[in-house]
Amino acid sequence: MLSRVGLSIRRWRRRFSRSEWIAKLLGLSTSGRQPHAPGLILIQIDGLAHPELLKALSGGRMPFLKGLIRKEHYRLEHMFSGIPSTTPAVQAELFYGVRQAVPAFGFLIHETQKLGRMYDPEVAALVESRDMFKHRDPLLRDGSCYLSLFRAGTKTGEAHFCPADQGWGPALRSASPWTIAVLILTNLWSLIRTAALIVVELLLSLVDCIRGVMQGQNLLKELMFVPTRVGITILSREFCTMGVKVDISRGLPIIYVNLLGYDEQSHRRGPRSAFAHWVLKGIDDAIARIWRAAHASDRRHYDVWIFSDHGQEQTKPYEEVFGRSLGDALSETLSDLAKPPEIEPGQSRHGVQLERARLFGSEWMDKKDIEKQEESVDYSTSKTPLALTALGPLAMLYNLELGNISREQVARKIVEQAHVPLVLYRVDPTSAKSPVHGWWKHGPVRLPEDGRKLMGDEHPYPEQSIADMISLCSHPDSGDFMMYGWCSSEEQPLTFAMENGSHGAAGPRETHAFALMPKDIQPPDPRLGYWRPQDLRTAARAYLRGAHPMKLDEHQLPQKTLRVMTYNVHSCKGTDGTLSPQRIARVIARYRPDIVALQELDVKRKRTGGLDQAERLARLLSMDVHFQPAINLNEERYGDAILTHLPAKLIKKGILPGPPKGKGRLFNPAADEPRGAIWVEVEHNGSKIQVINTHLGLSRAERLLQVDALLGPEWLSNPRCKGERILLGDFNALPTSAECKRLCGYLRDAQEQAPRHSPKGTFLKVRIDHIFLSAGIVIKKVRVPRTVLTRQASDHLPLIVDIEVPFRPEASKIP
């Protein structure tokens, strides 16, 4: 009855869903209702390093993300962004599995010998059309993306606020005035809320503008940043959040959104600044709204993964430290070449120094200047124009005519006279053992031999960074000389742009991203201790295929600790009406039990699609299964099971006594169900443990007979039932009932005896699922996880107990 009421409420909520109405008004396609099918939402927090996330969590800036870790069984993982630590490089690795697709955000395109930036539609399209992307399955096929530099397999109109598709797709641009009016009315509260946020952010921006001018910042730049800040932190975030919710209501299989606010503010004031951390509050709220919409979806079973593409370093602008641009410094430093370069401030006569510019960047005024400079460059006069790109902490010098001077001499000059911390260049691999040479203030360097010295002891990924730096030197779009604003000899990293936060090179924070993942989503190689974007891609593809690993054989608890779970799975049919053994398996996998007792399993029953649920769950979890059918009608069965990855053997299974004649009958078909039990002997650390799983009847008289049977010579008092004993399952009885009191005369109620634990309900907030333990077992911890997933997966909550079983050396192994 309660399930039917809940389903009716969900249907009515769906009918009045604003996201559903937006999709219908705009004529957007849907994928149909597939509630058992997996869906994935990838939320990227641009530029947020792992250490800065920890700071934000401890400082209360991101309460929702903190709640995911504490309540929803998410795990915070380290992620190595790779080098270059830039959004396009990470997106290419995530979407296509292509590492180092580009050497930086701006570079000299080898096909055209023109300078390009990744926010330019033609450059992004050219990169995505290269051979390295061909014959690779794009991750976002049939999905959508927001603020991505690549289409990544999305259909026309599904790439929003991207270089190739400005704005919210053609559906909104082609909508009639009547449709727009209805959309405004149906989303009036959201628009009012957004307007209020804009006003607040505008006031904060003006205050910060005044503060910046008082600290010596350029007034014009500060004023130009005010609308940019409002646009990125409020408008882009709110529009993207609204769009993602619409796509969830449409049931798209995969949705990617990039939240830019923190990264942009960090470039302006620095990644550690209160200015940047303030933005995380709004990002946290946007993630909360997306997460709630995902878990309320009737079209798919969505998972939400949250990650960052890279971090940022707190930097000093090169021009501010040395009083001149890098272009000026290089012009003077290399003036004694046979053909000295003429590199003017910020540009060369055959190229242009690129400042970082993005689709929603604060450098739109610089973009205008850059475009004017590019118009004055005649690329037709030379196939190899001299060019300098300097974005963040990485600068690249192209096509420098050396004359009689060696590369080593050029690198040394740049370090010693232009004060660049590190310069690298590639050498002929046939004539040198080390593929990359360079110079820093301590003298010449060779890679990989001197990599550890360059990275320092505190770098989280020294070997990986050096490998990427070596590879990057051979990229066809990389410069002849790679100039880095950071190495271990520098206390304060430099950036070649006018910014206080920077990324794109090899610093310890800019390469240290994070991934916030559900605990059952394991990295492809857990031994590494970190993810790469390519690992995220591999895990995402496995999840969307329904084949993500849930192996539980590597227990996270100490070896002497045993984790036991009992769970009534309601035939794998959730409170939302969705039939999903995969979802039940995910609940179990998140808590990594050693022994699982399940009740109400269907095996080849027509009502649940003819699936053998016991076998399916065992296969998903890589566990052995023992099943006891309480109901056996031809090939259709229904009953209980024990799953474990430990050595185990079946001792007994059978039917328990039914209700006395003339008693216990209710107006409920379940009252006529036979009730059974299954007994398995499990070996753990040399000890044999007797585990009995049961599901008792609905009437008190029936349950009392069944309890007497379980305590009798056929089960717990059987001569073979020796050593430590565990009786668990759905007893349909409260702790104060005569049945439970009778059992507690022989065994201990785990919830009652657990230290520092208040007993919690497992069904409608009452305790009818129990784990009873023999006296020798030590109870370490009890939990009844009440998360969104556990509340949806079944009408019962799982009961989980961590125990220690005393070691008995006389126990022999199970034959």
Automatic annotation (TrEMBL):
Presence of keyword Transferase: no
Keywords for the protein's UniProt record, in alphabetical order: Endonuclease, Hydrolase, Nuclease
A Gene Ontology molecular function term of the record: endonuclease activity
Alphabetical list of SUPFAM superfamilies matching this protein: Alkaline phosphatase-like, DNase I-like
Residue stretches in coiled coil: none
Gene3D superfamilies cross-referenced by the UniProt entry: Alkaline Phosphatase, subunit A (3.40.720.10), Endonuclease/exonuclease/phosphatase (3.60.10.10)
Record flagged with keyword tRNA processing: no
Positions of the Endonuclease/exonuclease/phosphatase domain: 565-796
Protein name per the record: Endonuclease/exonuclease/phosphatase family protein
Organism: Microbulbifer variabilis
